[in-house]
Amino acid sequence: MSPPQCHHNETVAFFYNNSNKTLYDGWTVGHKVVMALGIGVCVFIMLANLLVMAAVRANRRFHFPIYYLMANLAAADFLAGAAYCYLMFNTGPNTRKLTVNTWMLRQGLMDTSLTASVANLLAIAIERHITVFRMQLHTRMSERRVVVVIALIWLVAILMGAIPSMGWNCLCDIGACSTMAPLYSVSYVIFWAVSNLSTFLIMVGLYGHIFVYVRSRAMRMSRHTCGARRNRETIMSLLKTVTIVLGAFIVCWTPGLVILLLDVFCPSCEILAYEKFFLLLAEFNSAMNPIIYSFRDKEMLSTFKRLLCCRRVDAGGSAAGSTTNVTSASVSAAAAAAAAANNGAVDKAERSVSSSAVANHSFVSPVNAAAVAAALNKEHSFV
């Protein structure tokens, strides 16, 4: 049997013609619209995520594992914005000018950045899951372990982006080329889409488990305290956050992943006409992450405002004159309430929880507020 014929020296146009994917000689209206929107999204993504990273570095109250992961998510999303900008200037008619290596670089940057964003979202979901079920406001993970987790995220992301250029492509098997990504092997496209969909399902399971657990604990607590209404508000706040997270992920990622699979399993489907719009929609997820994970934290928002106004964040980590960090107040309230409960003063404990912790849950992560409530419920059960 003769060895397979490879086409490393062929032009990008050769592979596009092989996959029957159109290469344009001029800019169409669709290309111009996508490019204009794409550049605008890129600028917002990079600026917003730079702001998140600066806030985490400047405010010492954010020096906890969850915020380090958020900063790493911001770094991944910043790279996603930069990679999409690079794509915008190397698409349309400019695709003809690319060599095989520069085409692989263009796609590899996108795959790396988007994989890193998804992996960070998964890491944050796992961290929140551990926090709630261990009744903690923050995980006790050491900085060294956080660094290891972050390093693993980037190792996986870089590997996913580099695999096609390392050999998992169709340069030596042009019969197995994808239609959407004409230099990629169909098997790699399936692997990439399925791995991301699997990550999505894991996230759904984690957040669903968190919500069911917190709801059941809060409902039990509401039968023994006078804070039932505030507990319901905490549950609704958690439900809102989870709905936003999962909704954004579903809306932004599912269409793109589905058309990747349709590219393989439904050759007759007309998917190329929607390719760029779905890619842009997936990129919107990187723009939404700073809003979802940061702007709901009022301490983070206060830090943003001071950074944008070039005002100093004080040495203690909080912006001078800003809202008091209620996370610490909630811990103190929890400790006081637990002590009161152990002395038999359940009513006093309930008042401490209602006035100091649950009433101010809007300033803390809803998951953390619910964790405090669940922890106090556990203390009350021993009275």
Task: Walk me through what this model shows.
- The protein has twelve helices and no strands.
- It has 383 residues and is mainly alpha-helical.
Tell me the distance between the termini.
Answer: 80 Å
SSE string: HHHHHHHHHHHH
Given as residue ranges, the uncertain stretches (5+ residues, pLDDT < 50) are 315-383
What's the pLDDT, averaged over the residues? 74
Helix content bin: over 70%
Q: Biggest β-sheet, characterized?
A: none
Q: Which descriptor suits the 3D outline?
A: globular
Strand runs, count: 0
Question: What Rg, in angstroms, do the CA atoms define?
Answer: 25 Å
Tally of alpha and pi helices: 12
Structural class: mainly alpha
Determine the strand fraction and express it as a percent band.
under 5%
Give the helices and strands, then pairings.
Layout: H1 12-18, H2 29-58, H3 65-88, H4 100-133, H5 143-166, H6 186-222, H7 228-265, H8 275-294, H9 298-308, H10 326-342, H11 346-357, H12 366-380
Helix pairs in contact: 2-3, 2-8, 2-9, 3-4, 3-8, 4-5, 4-6, 4-12, 6-7, 6-12, 7-8, 7-12, 10-11, 10-12
Brief account:
Helix content is 70%, strand content 0%. With 383 residues, the chain is mostly helical. The longest helix is centred in the middle third of the chain and has 38 residues, at 228-265.
Keywords:
globular; single chain; 12 helices; disordered C terminus; 383 residues; 70% helix; mainly alpha
